[in-house]
Design a protein that fits this description.
Blueprint: H1 11-24, H2 29-38, H3 42-62, H4 64-86, H5 97-101
Length: 116
């Protein structure tokens, strides 16, 4: 079966597309998201503005604890991103076992130059 987005390759992709289509039917939030994704180029900016207004409204309603909570979540996300970016070798499953078990090259002694 061909969908408007082209042929789906796997069952997982079909499921994800079905969930996205179902989310688009959620009143207000789904409609705004669908308009931001498939609408005019300006719709993305209107969607971002609406999110900012909702954020400020939530901060006004809940207060300073929400600001602290958002800051903690942001710092945890930033730290996690840095760990994932800098520790890529720790999560790389493509490294072959032979290379990983190979002996390390000998340590070279540093050459010391003496002042004349």
């Amino acid at each position: 079966m061909l969908s408007p987005d082209g042929p789906a390759k796997t069952a997982r992709e079909r499921d994800v597309k079905a969930l996205v289509r179902a989310f688009y039917y959620v009143p207000v939030i789904g409609w705004l998201t669908k308009d931001a994704v498939h609408g005019t180029p300006e719709a993305k900016y209107f969607f971002a503005f609406n999110l900012v207004v909702l954020l400020f409204g939530a901060i006004y309603l809940v207060g300073y604890p929400l600001v602290i909570t958002l800051g903690l979540i942001g710092s945890a996300a930033g730290l996690s991103g840095l760990v994932l970016l800098t520790a890529g070798d720790a999560f790389d499953r493509r490294a072959s076992g032979a290379v990983a078990r190979a002996p390390a090259p000998p340590v070279r002694k540093p050459s010391v130059r003496r002042a004349a």
